[in-house]
Design brief:
mainly alpha; about 70% helix; Rna Polymerase Sigma Factor, Chain: A; Arc Repressor Mutant, subunit A; 2 domains; about 200 residues
């Protein structure tokens, strides 16, 4: 296959992933094709920054794909093809690796009503309805996950360390990374499908 043919295949695959409705087969093909590149870029970046933990590279990769999936139009959909897809994904991965390291102890959490509907001047009714729906959809999809996945995600986004998550969920600390990666991927996939039960 020539470079031009490979790029044409990539364009076609990305177009299927960022359409109005997620093409699950295309997304799975995209992840299968580019996951090794993303994991390798994450591992190299983390190693250069003094963190050679393979499980952390897996976390970074999970976050990269989760971000591309939940924000198809805002991230993957805006890729301008000025470089190869592998090069662009490497840049996205390096940025995510930096964010992951800066978050040595997670301080983020799942959005609450207050986060999505802040106080201050009342938003337009349409904006308020959209925010309320976003909260409902997030909660519904989170609650549809297996209890252990729910608990792990809630603890992680509430700022618990991996050791604390392991203790509270009842798993070995070495398994927290993969559990969170799988739970994030499940939640991202569910969110990409749209409103719960749709």
């Amino acid at each position: 296959m020539t470079i031009d043919e490979a790029r044409a295949n990539d364009r076609h695959l990305v177009a299927r992933c960022v359409g109005d409705a997620l093409d699950r087969e295309a997304w799975e093909a995209f992840v299968a094709r580019y996951r090794p590149h993303v994991v390798r870029a994450a591992a190299i970046t983390l190693s250069r920054l003094g963190h050679a933990d393979p499980s952390l590279a897996e976390d970074v990769a999970a976050d990269v794909f989760s971000g591309l999936l939940t924000n198809r139009q805002g991230t993957l959909g805006k890729f301008a093809w000025r470089s190869s897809l592998v090069t662009w994904l490497a840049v996205v991965t390096r940025r995510q690796a930096g964010k992951t390291l800066r978050r040595a102890r997670p301080t983020t959490r799942l959005p609450s009503d207050e986060d999505l509907c802040p106080s201050g001047p009342a938003p337009a009714p349409a904006v308020e309805a959209e925010r309320a729906e976003a909260v409902r959809v997030m909660r519904a999809h989170l609650e549809a996950l297996a209890p252990r996945d729910q608990l792990a995600l809630r603890l992680f986004y509430e700022g618990q360390s991996y050791a604390e998550v392991a203790e509270l969920v009842g798993i070995p600390p070495a398994h927290v990374s993969s559990l969170l990666a799988r739970a994030k991927a499940k939640l991202a996939t569910a969110l990409a499908r749209g409103p719960f039960g749709a």
